[in-house]
Amino acid sequence: MSTQLDEYLEAEIQSLLTDGRVAELGITVNRREHLLVLGGEVESTHRRDEICRQINQRFPDVQIVCDIGIIRASAPSEVEEIS
Amino acid sequence: MIRIAAVGDVHVDKDVLGRFRPALEELPGHADALLIAGDLTRHGTVDEARCFATEFGGLGVPVVVVLGNHDHQSDQQARVTEVLTDSGITVLEGDATVLELNGHRLGIAGVKGFGGGFAGACASNFGEREMKEFVGTTEVIAARLEEALKSVQCDALVALTHYAPVPDTLLGEPLEIYAFLGCYQLGRAIDAAPTALALHGHAHHGSERGRTPGGVPVRNVAHPVIKQAYNIYQLLSETVDTELIST
Ligand SMILES: [Fe+2]
Ligand SMILES: [Fe+2]
């Protein structure tokens, strides 16, 4: 039986990402037709790839699109004056 | 004039080593101190704390931090604090520190904070023991922040927390989880002292700017929100600086 794309699957993915090595609480999971689209931003490419690997491993018959970005870490160019 | 750099939620582990460092090497040229609003590490392990200290330590400016919920994940917060302190990083939890910068005294009071929610949608200290413990924890932490803020003699006072003191800076987060992202008790503590600026993190999908009911500017400096290595805030501007900026 193939995995159903429903709210329980989303909850299971969130708990997989929270409980395991990944420890990402801010990944969004959106259902689109037969696809699961992962969104949000993480601190490294290694972390993004690990998220996709873990979900693929746990749910091999679910098609996943990874739109997770890496947060920029450049120096700022502006100062905000607080008054 | 004092310039402080701030960021939160950097979630450092081995895979993040070196990502912030180029921008941090520039920091002493732009700011007098660096404040970090919790979630320093990924799981709160001692190894990750060492990674954090390597990445964010030894900058040539004072570094002051509070821990976040991620830094509590492994129940090693005491050891994590020790590793950071040994590296010259000041860790605040219900206490305050004063930095002498450019002839001014910058006071920083910090706590991790906790959840509970905001006016009209908050948890009450009522019912099951677990619920009373939850809200009781929030109340104790907020009281410690208020006490720490009031204990400081300084020219500019900054409140540093991980959890949010106002709902304004949560805009973008699902309403259903506001109660797990912050609490009004932190805002009330900030308003009970002459606070110039409140900095927090934790709300990765939130927004940057808000104000407490008492009018204190609040900034969510979570890294996914500011999308750069750190923000810089200027306090105690002299008239001449203001003129330079406004022309
Ligand atoms: Fe975080
Ligand atoms: Fe957090």
Q: Can you describe what's shown?
A:
The complex is a heterodimer of chains A (83) and B (247). By secondary structure, chain A is an alpha/beta fold. Chain A has one domain (7-70): 2-Layer Sandwich (Histidine-containing Protein, Chain: A), CATH 3.30.1340.30. Helices cover 33% and strands 24% of the residues of chain A. Chain A has 2 helices and 6 strands, in the order αβββαβββ. Chain A has helices spanning 7-19, 45-58, and strands at 28-32, 35-39, 41-42, 63-66, 69-70, 80-81. In chain A, the strands form 2 sheets. Chain A has a 3-stranded mixed sheet with strand order 1-2-4, with helices on one face. Chain B is of the alpha/beta class and 247 residues long. Chain B has one domain (2-245): Metallo-dependent phosphatases (Purple Acid Phosphatase, chain A, domain 2). Chain B contains 7 helices and 13 strands. In chain B, the strands form 3 sheets. A 6-stranded mixed sheet of chain B has the order 5-6-9-10-12-11. In chain B, β5 (95-101) and β6 form a beta hairpin. The radius of gyration of chain B is 17 Å and the shape is globular. The model of chain B is unreliable at 242-247 (pLDDT under 50). The A-B interface holds A 23, 25-26, 40-41, 43-44, 46-47, 71-76, 78-83 and B 3, 10-12, 15-16, 19-20, 22-23, 26-27, 30, 42-43, 70, 73, 196-197, 204-205, 217, 223-224, 227-235, 237, 241-242, 245. The complex binds fe (ii) ion (2 copies). Residues 9, 39, 68, 70, 202, 204 of chain B line the site of one fe (ii) ion. Chain B: It comes from Paractinoplanes toevensis. Chain B: One of its GO terms (molecular function) is UDP-2,3-diacylglucosamine hydrolase activity. Chain B: It holds the Pfam family Metallophos. Chain B: One of its GO terms (cellular component) is membrane.
Quick gist of this model?
The complex is a heterodimer of chains A (about 80) and B (about 250). Chain A is of the alpha/beta class and about 80 residues long. Chain A has helices at about 5-20, 45-60; strands spanning about 30, 35-40, 40, 65, 70, 80.
